[in-house]
Amino acid sequence: MQHRIIVLGAGYAGAIAAGRLAKRLRREDVAITLVNAEPDFVERVRMHQLATGQDLRPRPFSAMFAGTGVELRIARVTAVDVARRTVTLQDGELEYDTLVYALGSGWNAHGVPGTAEHADEIASRPGALRLRERLARLGAGQPVVVVGGGLTGIEAATEIAEARPDLDVALVAHDRLGDWLSDKGRAHLRKVTDRLRITVHEHTTVSAVEADAVVTAGGQVVPAAVTVWTAGFAVHPIAQATALEVTDTGRIVVDGTMRSVSHPEVYAVGDAAFALGAGGKPLRMSCASGTPMAWQAADAIAARLTGGKLPDTPLRYFNQCISLGRKEGLIQYVTADDQAVSAVLTGRFAAVYKELICKGAAWGVANPMLGLPTRRRPVTAERATGVPA
């Protein structure tokens, strides 16, 4: 009997995990099913580019997983029952022996009045396409406000300002602009936002979003023909509705192998997982976290099924890559636990570096073993069913 592995979600983490498992395990021993709501891969790190009118290369899963043995199921997940080990889809139900949960995250309105009704998001392709249409209809001089001073907000604001220099772009940051960066990183970021004529509202909290403005906690009304909301992400709510141990924000608590601490047949990767990295600090929601988490989970599942050695690669960071339009970038080098150091790379070289990182991330989805030879190992009979120790 084949060991049934279901991977929910085909973002960076889920797609890499599915592909890596297919190259680790023999096809006759396992049945790997990848469930995703859309038929092609979404380069989420490029949604700000899509929103400003740039066209992205299509990456259909049917081509990416052709010949791998991974079965694609294009469907939306509606529930997971960890007691029965079943996944409910809009069009049926699947049973699993091992589940890899990678449903990711979406935008988080934080309950701010008017946000859901009036703001646009770029955490998804549909959201980025809606924003694209709205920006295209704006005339010269119209105000655009990006709420959120994190990586997504900075990339969105600079991309819009560069692509549409005729618009009046503003960025609202809860803290100081780039407060997590080094002095050199903040200085370069300020230089670029000034050059692009982006108005930056620092130490500002948005208390409401209206059809034509955002209102700050201090009572200031900032005009906005379009408001782009990038102030944080929220994980898919399905995990919180299960018996899995989750955090108060709904992320699945996992051990160092990305295995659920409450249900050993479940693994979680990407934004959906709460995992600890260097120094015992939680990994942040990012592609930089999701990719090594996927490697770790896939290798751990394969090891437990085949009696191999469990992976013990520490999960750490090296840098933060920020695009500042198509011509500028900022690479902030960091410690293993993601703290900024003084070293940065800026300018055109940084933009090229970031582009290579984005291309490499997409390439890694289609090539989950990073060019290493395929080494499919047999699943031992006693581990084919049930939960491997």
Automatic annotation (TrEMBL):
Keywords: FAD, Flavoprotein, Oxidoreductase. Gene3D superfamilies: 3.50.50.100. It comes from the Bacteria. Pfam families: Pyr_redox_2. One of its GO terms (molecular function) is oxidoreductase activity. Residues 4-298 form the FAD/NAD(P)-binding domain. Belongs to the NADH dehydrogenase family. This is NAD(P)/FAD-dependent oxidoreductase. The lineage of its organism: Bacteria, Bacillati, Actinomycetota, Actinomycetes, Micromonosporales.
